[in-house]
Amino acid sequence: MAPKSLESLNAPGSRLISLDVFRGLTIAGMVLVNNPGTWSSIYWPLEHAEWNGWTPTDLVFPFFLFIVGVSITLAFERRVEEGSVKRDLYLKVLRRTLIIFGLGLFLNGLPFFHLSDIRIPGVLQRIAVCYLIASLVFLTTKIRTQLVIAVGLLIVYWILMTRIAAPGFSAGDLSKEGSLASYIDRAVFGPHIWKQGKVYDPEGILSTVPAIATTMFGALSGHWLRSERSPYEKVAGLFVAGAVGVVIGWAWNPFFPINKALWTSSYVLFTAGLALQLLALCYWLVDIKRYQRWAWPFVVFGVNAIALFVGTGLMAKLMGLLKLPDSDGTKISSQEWIFQNLFLSWASPVNASLAYAISFIVLWLFLMWLLYRKRIFIKV
Questions:
Q1: Which of 158, 191, 292, 309 fits a disulfide with 6 by CB distance 3.0 to 4.6 angstroms?
Q2: Residues 14, 19, 23, 24, CA torsion sign
Q3: 24-62 pLDDT, tens per residue?
């Protein structure tokens, strides 16, 4: 049952409820697009763009990294002001980085841990690296320097990707196989990259550079939220900055196309702009206008986001391992059995696939709510 106010739902300590809501919305979207009933029948907004361009699904990961950046500022700035020892903060950052990176490798390796071709990059691994570098930049530099670094990363990445040719390809080749980022991933990781074609990795080395900028733009937004300005000034500033980011990103698109897999500089600005505007909307609705009852599921998700991501990943892997007899006597995965017998039996493939994904989220909302009512917040 939804509470009348979300104040009672907040985790211990000073938190921005709208940020938990934004994080919860984002992780719910991530779970939705990662767990369809069948990958062969999906509505187009729930699929990634084939290469250049974007769909709503392509907004999910940059939104999460943006939120990581906001959280860095909100978590560390107060501690720095209270006189926390920098060494303790560095150790905390390093510990959290290693745990998140390790969880990503663990999920990649399940269930058989074939070390000869286990994928090394991944979503959690990119989160870990971006968190590490953005935190170190935050703890060692001032706001203006942070902005210069974020913009500088985008410009340097653009120059590298458009002016330096991968061996055997021409400069400016931004194809799956011919881009400089793809070449570096193949050269460094060999077979330890994304399984589809083994020619590039969407969370590879060079493309993590602009992803760090995404995280730093979130950190800069956190500075704005912690400023002494009025709530309405903060909302207006977020909306205006978001509009500027969207316009510049879209204007850059003809020269450096918006591309999630390559995490192009235009993609960073475009998605950061949209993230700023969605954060502003959540802040206005939840923290200023106090329209909160609608948001409780997303708070439940948002305060245990990493636990939700890891838990759903584990469940999907285990359901793929557990085999059940099909109608013809063959063995199929329990996930496929549930989809065919409980969803495909009454709906068209694409609607059944969506219904399965929604049911998966509802199940995990219940599980996360059980943790939440006990005030269990799993931190890494």
A1: 292
A2: positive
A3: 999 999 999 999 999 999 999 999 999 999 999 999 999
Q: Could you write out the DSSP letters of every residue in 28-48?
A: HHHHHHH--S-TTS--GGGS-
Percent helix, strand and coil across the chain, each to the nearest 5 = 65, 0, 30
d(CA 22, CA 222) in angstroms, rounded, equals: 14
**Tokens at 34, concatenated:** 């990662």
Confidence (pLDDT) at 15: 67
d(C-alpha 165, C-alpha 160), whole Å? 9
CA distance 28 to 179: 32
User: 196: which residues sit within 8 A by CB, 6+ positions away?
Assistant: none
Rounded CA-CA distance 31/145 in Å is 35
63-114 pLDDT, tens digit per residue, is: 999 999 999 999 998 887 777 778 889 999 999 999 999 999 999 998 888 8
Alpha-carbon gap, residue 18 to 337, rounded angstroms: 39
Q: Which residues contact 314 (CB under 8 A, 6 or more apart)?
A: 107, 110
| Cα dihedral 70, 66, 125, 39 sign | positive
Supply the DSSP symbol for 204. -
Measured CA to CA, the distance from residue 53 to residue 277 in angstroms comes to 20
- Contact status, residue 93 vs residue 302, Cβ threshold 8 Å: no
In angstroms, the CA 218 to CA 135 distance is 11
Dist. CA 138–CA 221, nearest whole Å: 12
Full-model pTM: 0.94
Residue 238: Cβ within 10 Å count: 23
The two tokens of residue 359 are: 């049911």
Give burial (CB, 10 Å; 0-12/13-18/19+) of 263: buried
β-pair partners for 331:
325
Cβ pair 48, 57 in contact under 8 A: yes
How many whole angstroms separate alpha carbon 71 and alpha carbon 215? 10
**Helices and strands in the chain, H and E counts:** 13, 2
Peptide bond into 121 cis (omega under 30): no
